[in-house]
Amino acid sequence: MASLSLATTTSSNFTDLSALLAFKSEIKTNRNNVLGSNWTEPGSFCNWVGVSCSRRRQRVTSLSLTNMGLQGTISPYVSNLSFLDTLDLRNNSFYGHLIPEIGHLRCLSLLILEDNLLEGVIPASVYHCQTLQVISLVHNKLRQNNFTGTIPPPSVNNSKLSYLGLEFNDLHGSIPDEIGNLNCDLTLLELSSNQFTGPVPPVLGYLENLQILNLRLNFS
Fold it and tell me: Residue-wise pLDDT tens for the chain (220 aa)?
């Protein structure tokens, strides 16, 4: 890991610093070397590109590195950013699996990983983030080929979710009836351009606040 003066880093946020450096260590391509030049400067990591912190505790609340030409895997140590509210890595080239450790981020509201090269199953642990409002995995290559379908069934504890975007993937299986657990706040459900099969769950008609439902280019 890169050398860094830790003189001003307290024990309360040393975990965040370590998590950020672990995230950086998994980046194989870094356009314009932004992380290489900026994420090594002495002083608070709250001044690093793409990092926002809480004012009082100086803990990481947002990691937003959109359209930066980053290529690599997402480090599981991101899950140690216990105050993280926003993880936005859209328009990069992250590959590999969506890490199940995401479920440890109990404060996470926005999970935006669209336009990357992620693959594999969507871990059910993503629903452990009970404050999630947005899940966007659009234009990835997420796949799951077993009888449970490809969307992990959400629970009643995910009632704050307002946007679920999984379009333009290679998802298979049926749409779970448990989508009805998102009745409270779900306004956009984007599932187009996948390979879903089976009947459309009648429960979708009971989502009271749903404004946009996109299922096109499925059920062939």
Answer: 443 434 345 555 899 999 999 999 999 988 878 888 899 877 799 999 999 999 988 999 999 999 999 999 999 999 999 999 999 999 999 988 899 999 999 999 999 999 998 888 899 999 999 999 999 998 876 643 222 246 888 887 788 999 999 988 888 888 999 999 888 899 999 999 888 988 898 999 999 999 999 999 988 6
What tokens does 13 get? 């946020």
The pTM score is: 0.89
Phi-psi sector, 97: left (phi>0), alpha (psi -120 to 50), beta:
beta
Alpha-carbon gap, residue 163 to 24, rounded angstroms: 29
